[in-house]
Amino acid sequence: MSGDKDELAQHARYGDHEGDNDFESARHSDGGGHDEEEEDDRERDEEAQLLDGEDYEQFELEDASPSAPLHRQRPDERTRARERDGDRRRRTPRSWLTRFLHGPSPPKTNTIRPRFPSVQEYPVRLLDRLLPQAWQKLVLLALSVLLWTAALAIPLAKSKGALTDAAGNDVRHLDCVDTLWRRNNECGLDGLDCRPFANETFSFRCPANCAGVRVLNPHHVGPVDVNYRPLVIGGPVYRGDSFVCGAAIHAGVISDASGGCGTVALRGTYYGFFGSSHHGIDSIGFDSYFPLSFAVGADPALDCGLPDPRKPLLLVSLLFTVTLSLLATSSPLLFYLTFTSVFAHVALLSDPPAVSGPSSTIFPTLVSLFAGRLLPALFCASILYLTIIKHTLSSLPPTANATRTLLWLLPLWLGTLSNDTLSWIPLSRLSAHDLAQQPGARAALAVILLVLVLAVANQTYHFWREGRLLPHLALYLVLLLAIAAAAALPGLELRIHHYVLALLLLPLTATQTRPSLLFQGFLLGLFVNGIARWGFDSLLQTPGALRDDAALNSRVPVVVPPLIYLNPPAEFGGHKGGVDRIQFKWAPPEEDKVEGISVLVNDVERYRGFFKDGGGGGLDQQVFTWTRDRERIRTAEYFRFGFVGAAGAVLDYGEAGTWFANGSWSQGEGYYRG
């Protein structure tokens, strides 16, 4: 009896296939359906009577559950279940939104159907015919990796290795933005911290692609502020704060495509730097004098080694990764080898970190930075692969290898080389200053946001089809809350680097569609470029670190009209060798935190005064006097004034005032005395 009871309980819980079929046939029959339903009900009642109380309650709960199929419920139970569902829907008016966000039922998995599958699979079949054994393929892969490594390492070592000039001195390796003179007052009073000014020569080596490097914050050049252009002033004699490599390209000593070597000769004080256009660089004119100038020349005795190999080796890396993508049938193998090779190409060749110094230190420094950044980058790449990229690549068959190459690998390279491929976009940085000052930046940002919105909408739709939208909405809600909390931290500012932007958007590509392949490859390339070039730069930075050398938007001194003493020339009765004088005073500062004042003359700091040095009268009682020999200096001079803040740091300098060669002052009439 107990065995029959267990058998009946099992029958009641899991159903009987024959009973199901009988019920379905009864539902669709033309007649007798009602009698068969009543007979089924009687059989269930008889079976239920044989069950004990506990099993009967469990049977009732399972059989009457709304989740149970309708054909396993009695007619009265089906009616009650429908009524309960209706009541529940009426009590929860937003349930339609939940059902919508869950996506269609059943979900529709996104898959890529390759076009011309036999053509795309041909390289794999050919490799199987030539090398049928697995160990043969492994040997081929190992040899390919070794050949690619040697093809990169040997030219890199010869182009970035140690060099000496004819005198045995170490050649200086310069970055594209290196100058002999630092901005504002960073060379100290009268430029003493940037000496020597003359009577010195040295040999240098520059990398490729320096012609397009621009200054990204306003740089004072006499009466104007230069921005978003190469900082090359003059030619063939250049002002000391010019980019040395840019000046060498302008002078024709090196080429932008391959870099090169040359010599710098310091010329000291020089008058009249003329602007001109040569070799793709428009130099800036400056009509006054500067204490440090230099000329650039070639050194026939200097063997510069191999020219910068970034462009030829780009073809080598492209060939290696494209061949790997066409032949690989393992997505982890493809991903990790491609990631490592692309990372190495950026960190060592296409966009290496900015390093300067003796040439003997450059190659070890680059390799050290590469190794230090690769390991944490590979850890992040592993997380990305397991959580995101695996959804896109792992189930692609060999019949889609060409599709993968075109839509995933090539966009990855475009993102990796973004310093070249995206250089035409007039948007250097996502900062309020750049958006306001850089021509075309706002329009470019609007177009980028439009493309981003369309891409996000497309990806959201595909996640909805797969029934995976709600988890991703929850993820981005958490990310937004974390970003908002970080932005609210006092004393710190949030900076979304492009590697961070890539990490934020990559989860939207975790589905197998052609747009997902394209977006994922490009975003992964941006991640590689950001880490290989800049490292894991902090998401939270202090205002000073974020600003770098940009303006502080601080108050500037209010200078009263100067007092000018003009000495007539000798031919008009003046004393031979006499000088003209101009004296400045300034209104009392409105801020208590200001400690002093700094004066630039022709962009060189010539005066710095402090409150405590005012003889008890305060800073507003001090006078700055500047003299010039009219017989020797017959050019205009440019003056800028800025407050000195805490710890001697100079704040923003104001607009330039001009003391013309004829003695007149550009800002107001002033007072004249003979």
From TrEMBL:
Matches recorded under InterPro entries: CRISP-LCCL_domain (IPR051957), LCCL (IPR004043), LCCL_sf (IPR036609)
SMART domains attached to this UniProt entry: LCCL
Keyword set, alphabetical order: Membrane, Transmembrane, Transmembrane helix
Chain intervals with Acidic residues compositional bias: 35-63
Biased composition (Basic and acidic residues): 1-34, 73-88
Transmembrane segments: 138-157, 312-328, 362-386, 406-427, 439-457, 469-488
Boundaries of every LCCL domain copy: 187-284
Keyword Ribosomal protein: no
Highest taxon, organism lineage: Eukaryota
Residues covered by region (Disordered): 1-95
Name of the protein in question: LCCL domain-containing protein
Organism: Podospora appendiculata
Lineage: Eukaryota, Fungi, Dikarya, Ascomycota, Pezizomycotina
